[in-house]
Amino acid sequence: MVSLSYQSIKDIEIMIVDVNDHSPTFPHTTENASVPENIQNVIVTTVKAEDIDKDSIIEYKIKKMIANRLQLTLIGTIKIIKELDRENTTNAMVSLVIEAVDTSGTNASDQCYDSIFSQNNSTTTIVNIKILDQNDNPPIFKSSYISIGVRRTITTGKTEAFIFDLKASTFDLKRHMILHLVPESVEPDPDSDQYSVHQFKVNGKLTYSIDTLLDQKIQELLNTNKIKACTGSNEKTPICVTGNGTVNTNIQLEENMKGYINIPLIVKDAAGNSTTELRIYIISDYQTGSILINGNKEYVQSIKADLMRILTQLTGQNFTADGIRPFNTGTFQSTYLDFHVADPKTGTILSAKAAIQLFDKYSSQLGVILKQYSILAAKTYTETQAQDDEGGIKTTYIMIAVIALLGATNLLIGFFFCSSASRYQRKLKAATTKSTVDQDKGGTETHPGTNVYARNVASFDSNQFTKKEPIRGDEEKGATMDMYDDERDVQQGDNESLAMVLEQYKKEKAASRESLVPREMHNGHLHSDDFTHSFDNGGLELSLETTEV
Question: Following DSSP, what letter does each residue of 355-406 receive, concatenated?
Fold first, then answer.
């Protein structure tokens, strides 16, 4: 039986179909771009994501953006469709969240294995767009009218003096304590620093108050060539305004000058300009008032603008601060705010007394204000000066009294010192005598070192001791005794003891002369040329020192 086997070989071709199993990816998690402000219809940048799947179709969407400002096309192009304002954008930066989505749809593989390949098919990136600044904000004066006051004393002995800075928010008190302090005259420029450089300039002719003849006085100075041209300009004016906003006087303000000067001003940069009128009042002492405030200079400077504005609104008169100065007192820290008041209708300056009367007139309305700003008193400037002078006189008197007291104390010390020295000299005289026994007028024997003997004989001349001059006559010794009481009578037993001491001294003195080398005893009582001996005899302590003269 024959069995047959059949075998057939056939090649089967298997096609591997791409499955959409990868999400699109961006090359960077964040991307940066920049664009100038104030432009539109400009492409900022283009984003592009990659998908390794063969049939993937990527589309782009903005998940977070500024509405109606930017446009993102389906192919990833970011375009400005409406101008961006750097000054109104936080940190001058726009951040966009861009999403890339694979929109290729499903395929056969997805139908069979949709549970396996149901992965996320999108990804995101962040695009940061920096808005570049342009000079698009012109400088703007805060007010169409600026009023300041200047004291004549700032130009004493000179023609040019600093008044104030139009750009500065505060003025340097160290330069001029009496200058007017105002808030910043120009609004802050929102542009960057490179586009915030402003140029100030006088924008016309200066005018003067009519009723004060100030115009006539200025014209006389011009006619006599006493007014020089301002720096950087050919204009000869009594007030100079520099390009950086510094205002200086150009004449020496005289005692008979009063009134005000009107200066038209313009400030500009590449973005535009703004104008105002600067009125400078020439203030005298009798036109200056002073408000005493409980606080230091820093506190007063922080409230002065608000205080002047409130007083102006309340009274209908223009209050303007002229300076800050400390009040000399040791009880509490306080400061004077000097000011002047101008009539808004006529432009004339009120006297200081009239300005102070406004506080009395509106005292009921000012009650809360006085408490809020710690106002202690309102006075004329001359009153405060007199008070300061009085305080200075009082201080002088106090200093004189202190010096006199110290002098009296020194005199007392000197008196007691001299008294003690005199008493010491009397004791020294009483203890200084000859080494031999003598008699007093009554024939009674006296001994060296006793007060009885000291009263009957004259002491040595002090010059003999200081100058070490030789003493004529018998050999004399200096004796010092502590007798406890200057008036104590010497007893007979003491005389015998003293004789013993003198006898012992003669023996020891003779022995000491036999030796050429100075000797000292172990107890310290004997020296080569000096003799010291002490003993206790019935409660009487005797100490004897002798020195050969």
Answer: HHHHHHHTHHHHHHHHHHTTEEEEEEHHHHHHHHHHHHHHHHHHHHHHHHHH
The pLDDT assigned to 178 comes to: 37
**Please, which residues have CB within 8 angstroms of residue 182's CB and are 6 or more apart in sequence?**
146, 148, 164, 171, 305, 321
> With the C-alpha atoms ordered 180, 186, 187, 189, is the resulting torsion angle positive or negative?
negative
Residue whose C-alpha is closest to residue 429's, from 384, 383, 460, 390: 460
pLDDT of 467 strictly over 50: no
Domains defined for the chain, CATH in brackets? 30-132 (2.60.40.60), 145-283 (2.60.40.60), 435-547 (no CATH)
Q: How far is CA 349 from CA 258, 282, 352, 356, 458, in A?
A: 9, 9, 9, 13, 90
Cα(377)–Cα(159) distance, rounded to whole angstroms? 35
More confident residue, 184 or 486: 184
210: left (phi over 0), alpha (psi -120 to 50) or beta: alpha
DSSP 3-state percent helix, strand, coil across the chain (nearest 5): 30, 30, 45
**How would you list the strands of the sheet with 318-326, edge to edge?**
318-326, 334-342, 289-294, 375-380
Give the integer Cα–Cα distance in Å for 262 and 250.
Answer: 15
Tokens of 540: 């009487």
For residue 450, give the amino acid letter: T
Which ranges constitute the DSSP H helices of 55-204?
108-112
CB 175 within 8 A of CB 235: no
Are 132 and 37 in contact by the 8 Å Cβ rule? The answer is yes
> CA of 252: how far to CAs of 210, 217, 229, in Å?
20, 12, 14
The interaxial angle of helices 297-315 and 363-372, nearest 10 deg, is 160
Q: What pLDDT, in 10s, does the model give residues 232-268?
A: 788 889 999 999 999 998 888 877 788 889 999 999 9
pLDDT digits (tens, 9 = 90+) for 158-189: 667 888 888 865 433 333 333 444 446 898 89
pLDDT digit string, tens, across residues 31-81: 999 999 999 999 999 999 998 887 788 999 888 766 578 889 888 999 999
Q: How many residues does the chain have?
A: 549
Is residue 479 packed enough to be buried (19+ CB in 10 Å), middle (13-18) or exposed (0-12)? buried
| Rg (alpha carbons) of the chain, rounded to whole number | 53
DSSP track, 167-226: S-SS--TTT-TTS-----SBPPP-S-GGG---EEEE-S--EE-TTTTHHHHHHHHHHTT-
154 and 168 Cβ atoms separated by less than 8 Å: no
Q: Which amino acid, residue 527? A: H
Tokens of 181: 């302090």
Amino acid at 422: S
**SS3 letters across 427-455:** HHHHHEEECCCEECCCCCEECCCCHHHHC
